[in-house]
Amino acid sequence: MISGMPALTHQEQQEAAERIHQLMQEGMSSGEAIARVAQEIREHHQGARVAVMFDDEDEMNNEENAASSDAEDDNEDDDPERAY
């Protein structure tokens, strides 16, 4: 998936982080605060945009590798000859 995202300056990033912290101090969950600030940025940002590609296939491969690694770890525990 390819998405155009706002290119933020360091100052704009700092302001966004401060806004997120402010919303959290007011009792909003971190996820909701991040989502709200992201939406505000999308609605009001007038600067450049950068193209970002999210590769869902890589994410699926990472999950498969993690599952495979867990299975290998489980098999190691079954070895009665293994010295601890």
Automatic annotation (TrEMBL):
Spell out the family assignment given in the record's similarity comment. Answer: Belongs to the UPF0181 family.
Organism, per UniProt?
Gibbsiella quercinecans
Q: Where is the composition biased (Acidic residues)?
A: 70-84
One Pfam annotation, family name? UPF0181
For this entry, the protein name equals UPF0181 protein AWC35_22430
- Where are the annotated segments for Disordered? 54-84
The lineage is: Bacteria, Pseudomonadati, Pseudomonadota, Gammaproteobacteria, Enterobacterales
